[in-house]
Amino acid sequence: MPSFVYVLGCRAKDRCLTYVGWTTDVERRLQKHNGGRGARFTRGRAWVLLHTEKFRTRRQAMSREWYLKRDRKFRKLLAQRV
User: Global pTM?
Assistant: First the structure.
């Protein structure tokens, strides 16, 4: 089953926030984040999808997620679109 890595963005008071995660259904996961049923960090904020990548396996997606969470330069670049 294909898996996806996604980057979400939202505008806070004085900065842009990003969130990186993985899923098998990006649209359903975004709805959960915006509905307050996603990760604790994402609750109470309006998120927009900034970036997705598709992988053949869950393991590949989780590995890429680990890398993107540490790649602040890439996330800052994406956050400029919020």
Answer: 0.92
